[in-house]
Write a structure and sequence with these properties.
294 residues; alpha/beta; 5-stranded parallel beta sheet; two-stranded antiparallel sheet; 11 helices; globular
Length: 294
Amino acid sequence: HALNRDPIILVHGFTGWGRNEMLGFLYWGGLNDLQEDLKSLGNKVYTASVGPLSSNYDRAVELYAQIRGTCTDYGEVHSKKYGHTRFGRCYTIPLYDKWDENNKIHLIGHSQGGQTVRKLLSLLKEGSPEEIINNKNDVNDLFLGKKNWVTSITTISSPNNGTTLTNIMDAFIPTIQSVISYFGAIVGLGQNIVYDLKVEHWGLTKNKNESFTNYFNRVTNSSIFDTKDISKWDLSPEGARENNAKEITYSDVYYFTISTQSTFMTNPFNQCKFSFLNILDFPSSTIGCFTQIA
């Protein structure tokens, strides 16, 4: 087989986390270490950490900044449209500082990470015309497009056409926006060593001397409650359909997808397997329980 010479970037999915979070329990491998396993086979591998609850656009911009080692710039037009700050977290150490047309990468995304890497590819290729037109003198290099910097895209268990899980979550638990707010009010420390929400650009980071009550009120009044710039929309069938219509398949990029299945028949009247004992099992085991008529 051909020797792979291009680095691999691993991108987590919805509610995912980085290597320095969750007290050492790894998103990619759990108690094992998939990154190091792949390295032992001769690959260069890096694990990214983007907003666990953010939109694919925001995640893609964060991923670009992280790989390049620069400050996150969501764009003047985009940030004004959705009501959050233009600039986010800065990354002083790049994941791969040689990244360019002559030093391409493989992008591997799990779950929402698959949508995210597709969005990054689109921005690399097409850029953002609206950012260029409306902000000619101060444009993020990503938005200029024309970057043939990706060798392949691999999506693993990705809801490329959306998931009805978003409907189930509306019916049985608080909306994703509420989860962000309430969990953020508890964590509220931005770069938390256990779980990092990465929502500073939405103003959801608790200030040092801010009271819990004031912070909670500020969070619950955030514009994140009324936006499509969030994971819940991108992961819905409607959001995925809207985003897919804008994307192009590129002949110079290899595409791979890996599908998995968890839901199974438990009795003649119920095709769902519910497990509230394991929160990580809940999403995958309930996706097949909801039928949506277009």
